[in-house]
Amino acid sequence: MAPMEEDMLLPPGWADLDRQMGQLFMMGFDGTTVTPQIRSLIEDYHLGSVLLTAKNLKSAEETTRLVLELQTIARDAGHPVPLLIALDQENGGVNSLYDEIYIRQFPSAMGIAATGSKSLAHEVAVATAQELKAVGVNWILGPVLDVLTNVRNQPLGVRTAGDDPQEASQYGVQVMRGYQEAGLVTCGKHFPSYGNLEFLGSDTDVPIITESLEQLSLSALVPFRNAITHGLDAMMVGGVSMSSAGMNVMHACLSDQVVDDLLRKDLGFQGVVVSECLEMEALTHNIGVGGGTVMAKNAGCDVIIICRSFPVQQEAINGLKLGVENGIIGRPRIQQSLRRVLNLKARCTSWDQALTPPGLLSLTQMQPSHTSLSTRAYNGSISVLRDKRNFLPLSNVIDAGEELLLLTPLVKPLPASAVSQSVSGNSHFPHDSVSWDRTASVMSGESVFKELGRSLSRQRSGRVLHTSYTANGVRPIHEDLINRASAVIVITADANRNLYQQGFTKHVSMICQSQYSPSGERLEKPVIVVAVSSPYDFAMDPTIETYLCTYDFTETALQALVKVLYGDLTPTGALPGSISRSQKIHQSRQHWLVESWNEERDGNALDVLLDTIRNDCALGQRSELLGVTSNSFLLRQEEIDEAHFVVRNSSTQALYGFCATYFFRSTGTGVIACLIVDPARRKLSIGHSLHNRAIRTLLQRKGMKRFQLGSRLPGIYLGIPTANPMERKRLRQWFANLGWNTALSRPVCSVVLHNLASWSPPEGLATSLQNAEVTYDLVYGWDFARAILDHIKTTARQGVIDIYRMALGGAPNCGIIRAKRPLDGVVLGSVVIYNERSALAEHMPALRAVQTSVGGISSPVISPYAGDYATVMQGLILLAIKQIRKLKANAVVMDCVDGDGNFDCLSTMGFTMLHSFEEVNCDASTWTIMHSS
């Protein structure tokens, strides 16, 4: 085919060879502003892709400005299409763009895999890509698809999802899809694998893959193959050598055996192939960049990376042009690569997008949801691999007044990439487009560990001692501090590559196991070892009996660690991959068959389950289920849709778990009112299965606006019980792990007034109520419904209007006390009163928790026009008490009391706490997003 005919296959404007070749390079530069060199590359050499690293990026705002300026230069220079702007943003320790205000920190790839959640991996990828898209980036160099087929001494470490090919493949595909969903094009790396490399020791020697193609195909190539099948946009081919039967390659990205044969033909990849950076010292020493560029192009690479040296970048461009002019590289190969690059650009950018990036406004809007996602991801990643002596939480082994010792290594700043030192010529490992010595994105190890020490101190009243350790080993100062402390925490960071850390940790452990009391009795001082980077430091060393992993030592990860150490967070993470396979099988969630509640079949079995849970209640604690029967859950109200679920033994009919749900049409609220599991069968995922079914069912209700954990009708559980602090922490974390934002909970309680016969109102209360311009009356029946229900509309609380409807239809056992303005009869406040014989009492078990004759008060509603809220409230309650006392009752129970103000008002009248809860709410959109994947 003649050159003219070849050019006709290209879009208009691409006939010029220089313009074609410029699109086939990705180049970077030094500095946080546009330099003359990068401007020249765009204007004079038609550069098509710009690589940004941490050295270029100071903040989200300045990044947006920089990217926009680069795109504007390209447009003004006559580029037919915008630039591809690429960077690494793998999370954990590998973030080129860092901004503590606008850019969220998420766990590393292995940290995400430790959560066990593929959907979370997708969510985090979407969020990461959305933030990059906002500043103008359109190409993310990820996902990492390597498998750690040799977990020891591999620089990639936590940047991979682990050592299991199938698991790494599944997470890789989810991350890729997340990036694409947010509008970025992807680049898998590092083909054919950096997961098992041998290093020869010299900077000019290339790391070697010694596995055969057959071995690679069964393990390392699995994630690459699956990502290609699912639509990977681009693939980065590494700068490693291969030496095995049937394959002898000096640099993979320069070999047609690797690119054209293995990647293109065998794996069927049709996307853009990107070379490793050709500035690596091993390549420049052995071949030279000009020759390397020609070899990479002939091997099948479409885009060639030259990181930041302007003379070297010019050498590469001139080398490619000379190769074409000399006939070493055919024009069809140039044009084929160009078409692939233009197709890639068409999928992720346009001039309109490139010149109008969403910027800080978009980042500000994302911030709340991304912050919540970051916390959820880190909380779910912390893994306790062993705790043989039950040293966790620390309160098990150390009293408030005792001293805790924290020992941390002196480490370099968290590396953006452990493989990136070659830019400065001090590493034999190929460059990965992110610089080692960045300082903006993560604090230095020393600084972040000092903050860890401060966080530990803030959480306890006892003193935290903190010092660092180095390759000098255990010094006298360490021994003195160990003798002082009652427990020791040792931090390690990649101890497999920093062997002094292994030696130090084992020495400290030995000292702590050899402590003696003054009487000569041997004592063992608790030692907790935390690996804050690679989890493999002591993964296979059972002598370290309490061992945790955080997968990175960003500040956010260590905040989650502190929660685990003090018992504020129940760790749910597990080491990904084959090493902890038995542990993961043990911890894996079973999926129980959840069935709809059947009153005839399940009624008696539910009563048995309720008795079992009541009997399990700790001695001296009052169970929230006192007085609850299976009938308590059955409202049978026209305006309330109820659906209840069970996990049961179909042979014995015994119930293992029960969940009650209601949809209140009046407020568009879906409620989980009760979720209970047989105490003997907890931690088997019965609760997870019930919760998942409940949420999915409620999502199907028309008009769903919000979800609520805890119900006022029936008033069995008003929310998460809070009487037992340890149980409260456990339940809050359990629900938080399921997606509830427990940080936004609202206190609510039931209160009781005993000894009603001898009770008298506080001094002056009756006088103050007489002086107020409010009158009170007691009414029964539907004749008063209109005015009362109009008044009730001033509150949007779930279940309140339904409680009033039951009261209006429950005369004479239910009534309503009103507070009115005398001049016009406007209702300023109301409260429901009822006795033990009312239908309402069946659904308010707090009434039966008091073992004496009792009356009930429920659901006070005070109008915003009432003026003095407390006065109207006390007036309603005072009249209610008087009415209940006429019935010869010995006590009054008031349910559904908002604990953020009303309890103080009631305590002055003599009420005491009966049950306390935390009511939790969230928008329906939270669950819609979570359950749509």
Helix content: 25-40%
The chain-level structural class is: alpha/beta
* CATH class membership of the largest domain: Alpha Beta
Low-confidence stretches are: 1-8, 413-443, 582-588, 929-933
Give the integer mean of the pLDDT values.
87
Overall number of structural domains = 4
- In terms of DSSP E residues, the strand content is 15-25%
> The biggest beta sheet, please?
13 strands, mixed
Q: Kindly report how far apart the N and C termini lie.
A: 49 Å
Superfamily at the CATH H level of the largest domain?
Glycoside hydrolase, family 3, N-terminal domain
- Structural shape: elongated
Number of strands: 34
- In DSSP terms (H or I, runs of 4 or more residues), the helix count works out at 30
- CATH fold assignment of the largest domain: TIM Barrel
Which radius of gyration do the C-alpha atoms yield?
33 Å
The CATH architecture name of the largest domain reads Alpha-Beta Barrel
